Amino acid sequence: MSIHRVLLIYHAIRACIAAEETEKQLRQRGYDVRRISSADKMALKHAATQPISDIEFPHSSDAHPSQKHKLSVTPIQASGRALASQTTDSPAQFDLVLALGGDGTILSAAACARYWDIPLLGLNMGHMGFLAEESQENVADLVDRISDGHFLIDTRMTLEVNVYTPDGHIHHDWALNEAVLTHTDDTHPVDMVLAVDGQDVSTYGADGMILATPTGSTAYSFSAGGPVVWPDTEAIIMAPLAAHGLFTRPLVVGPSSRIEVSVLESARTDAVVWCDGLRAIAAPIGSTMAVSVGTRSVHLIRLDDTPFSTRLVHKFRLPVRGWRHNDNRGNSQ
Do 111 and 81 form a contact (C-beta atoms < 8 A)? Predict the structure, then answer.
């Protein structure tokens, strides 16, 4: 994989200084770089769709003389929301998306990686950072290693999300982690019906319903009691939020299923659909959220072949040896 153009997305607070240093190192090594923050809502679309030739060149005195005609690295604000439901078949403006931050920053960056169908490398500068890589290597050295082909691709399933509202409109979106239909009135649950492949399964009065990918099974769905699903599995996890009903267990369906969650006329509150916690779609009473496996994946870069089980134990700090383990078993105290 030959890398020339890098889109660098960083957390505006945690990774600002690291992003500046990374940009400088990459530019000195000859890479074209566009550096943007994960804070703004509109600039990512501008950065991702603007032709390289339309961006001004640098005149920085600290650039190597051979790099005076390389792409300028302009600190602008950005977010993945503007690219939420878009994809393109046009030639990619970048070869790699590099995200510095936590999982929220990576989810924002994933919109651009999906749009251009290019790989995404996330480096953890947040808290748990389940999607991110951890490395002691210099970031510029990592990019050199990736350019030389020393990496693995971890392809992640996505969700296609369509929200049908009573006025006849259809709102299209997607998610890497989860799509959540939730109430807008904190004092009242939303009445909803869950259907799988056209068959009504259960009716709930609940705070909401999470529909997650295996990637998202360790995020919001996990907090709602959903199972951890290995990321190479193709499945959709359904996890009700604080549901009042007789059948409120999380469910897992196969990749060919279509799931619909409808807001019933009996509901006392409108709902809203959140995709990856970044993008909101109003879902008034009578709306339906339809979710299926997406046709376009997100490709995460892995720096080694560490199995998911090891990542799981490490990230959650699981007590592999619990209270039943006793090295002095059989000895009385």
Answer: yes
